[in-house]
Amino acid sequence: MQNYFSLISFLITLSLLFSCQNNTEKKNRKTKVEIRDSIAKNLFEQKCNVCHDATGKKESEIIAPPFHAVRMVYMKSSMDKNDFIETMKDWTHKPDSTKSLMKPAIKLFGVMPYQKFDDKEIDLILEYVYKTEFPKPKWFDLHQEMHRRGIAH
Ligand code: HEC
Question: 93 pLDDT band (50/70/90 cuts)?
Fold first, then answer.
């Protein structure tokens, strides 16, 4: 009987140990994703949002469409994540008005200037962009409505 009890308590200790270990592994995995995301966020701020940032800006002050709008248009016209990333990657490496999904933006700001981007950095940025909701500027809904009615670009 005593042996039976010690076997049970041994098994309980063992299962507790395993569950602790699993939790630590899960935490480590999460940290890796978090590190990747924060690198990607920094890259996005430096390489894209210098032009695309619209937070706190008036519509008349922006020099490129807010990323909220860019992401929305690309989400609508993509079949899935892969398609979204590939289409945006193609654009980023070779902006060309004939491939544009945002022709009104070209009328307003001119075609996005060609810049040499690192392929690996773009992969990181676009993974991040796909899963991130960007802030919507205050004036955005009104702009959309006017656009729908043909009053704005
Ligand atoms: C020097 C300023 C500048 C930088 C930096 C910049 N963009 Fe742009 N981008 C623009 C402008 C201006 C437009 C609007 C005109 C257009 O669509 O070509 C634009 C449009 C876009 C579009 C919509 C293209 C279309 O017409 O379908 C995408 C997608 C885009 N940018 C992605 C990016 C990404 C990703 C980065 C960073 C890797 C980036 N941009 C960096 C200026 C910039």
Answer: very high
pLDDT above 80 (res 94): yes
Q: What is the CATH number of the domain that holds 116?
A: 1.10.760
**Residues of the domain holding 119:** 2-148
Ligand 1 atom having least distance to the Cα of 111: 18
Total domain count for the chain?
Answer: 1
Reported pTM: 0.84
Asked whether 98 and 125 are in contact (CB, 8 A), the reply is no
Q: CB within 6 Å of ligand 1 — which residues? A: 47-48, 50-52, 64-65, 70, 88, 91-92, 95, 100-102, 105-106, 109, 111-113, 117, 125
Integer angstrom CA distances of residue 70 from 46, 82, 145: 17, 16, 17
Cα(99)–Cα(10) distance, integer angstroms: 66
